[in-house]
């Protein structure tokens, strides 16, 4: 279990709010750039340009994944269709009908925000649009449970219940997480109860900052890590969608920091 850092000081919370606001600006710019004919490298260029304009740093650049692979080489993850997460930007061209996951983080004054959205490139199939909608709904089902006195497992159960009731599956092995001075802090925030995580029993208290991020597949939950050490794809090549916000737990309910 990673250490959980509760933000108890006013200035810590204000910096988290600024990092969240910066992340929202960058995510919106990247999502707006998604269109048929655009390359994923061009999306990365938009992210880097926007970060520079607002005076923020890229949270993802040079992040360490598995020790045997190189640090992450870009400022955004752009994952298409059956790519679940961590797609590395490059020459790939976005096509009509693709669903494109934009996942981005911004660092401001030593604190991080993290957010993701799945965007339709042009006209997509009804099934693809349904998956995008269900994944977003899963996030808000989890958000409803992100209240003082509940536990992480309440969020996890709500996400899984909604996904599975819609006939979709929940990705295993990758979770939401705490966030603050580090992009990834404790607690882990799983998207289901199908796997055991000690953090499932963590109590939600005021000042906790976490990321809820459902990763939902149309087909099987099974995934595979690609040879680049980063990109994760569905094993059955079914479509996958991703939706994420950073939020602050408060006595009056969760506050979305990256909206």
Protein topology:
Layout: H1 10-32, H2 40-54, E1 57-58, E2 76-80, E3 83-85, E4 99-108, E5 111-120, H3 126-144, H4 152-165, E6 169-170, E7 176-178, E8 185-189, E9 209-212, E10 215-217, E11 223-225, E12 232-234, E13 240-242, E14 245-248, E15 255-256
Antiparallel strand pairs: 1-4, 2-4, 3-12, 4-5, 6-10, 7-8, 7-9, 9-14, 10-13, 11-12, 14-15
Structural overview:
This protein has 259 residues and is an alpha+beta fold. It has one domain: Creatine Amidinohydrolase. It has 4 helices and 15 strands. The strands form 4 sheets. A 5-stranded antiparallel β-sheet has the order 8-7-9-14-15. Strands 1, 2, 4 and 5 form a 4-stranded antiparallel β-sheet that branches. It has a 3-stranded antiparallel β-sheet with strand order 3-12-11, with no helix packed on it. β11 and β12 form a beta hairpin. α1 packs antiparallel against α2 and α3 runs antiparallel to α4. It is globular. The relative contact order is 0.19.
